[in-house]
Description:
Layout: H1 13-35, H2 40-45, H3 55-73, H4 114-117
Pfam families: Duffy_binding
Domain Duffy-antigen binding: 1-117
GO molecular function: host cell surface receptor binding
Amino acid sequence: DIVRGKDLFLGNTYESKQREKLEDNLKTIFGKIHSGLTDSGAKTHYQDNDKKNFFQLREDWWTVNRATVWKALTCEAKTDDKYFRNTCNGGSPTKGDCRCKDDQVPTYFDYVPQYLRW
């Protein structure tokens, strides 16, 4: 949700300031990705408003990279470590390293609207 710019949590004053800083950093990062696009069609497709949030670019980046992000998050997981819920292939447990078969991400909750996950 944070990468895609859809996180609803505002937190306390300190948390809000940290969130603003994070959001500014993400705008900078995705602005650099956008400026590095060489295909003019892609540059036009991902053109953004004056706020430079690049929401569609962020959404597509997440779609392409979510499995790699999960691998990075679980790189220290041990063979016997399990994901907290059986979610592989509709209800099977993770097989090791908190990963499903073929390193598939064990959940698609990141695509469920955040207010429905609470």
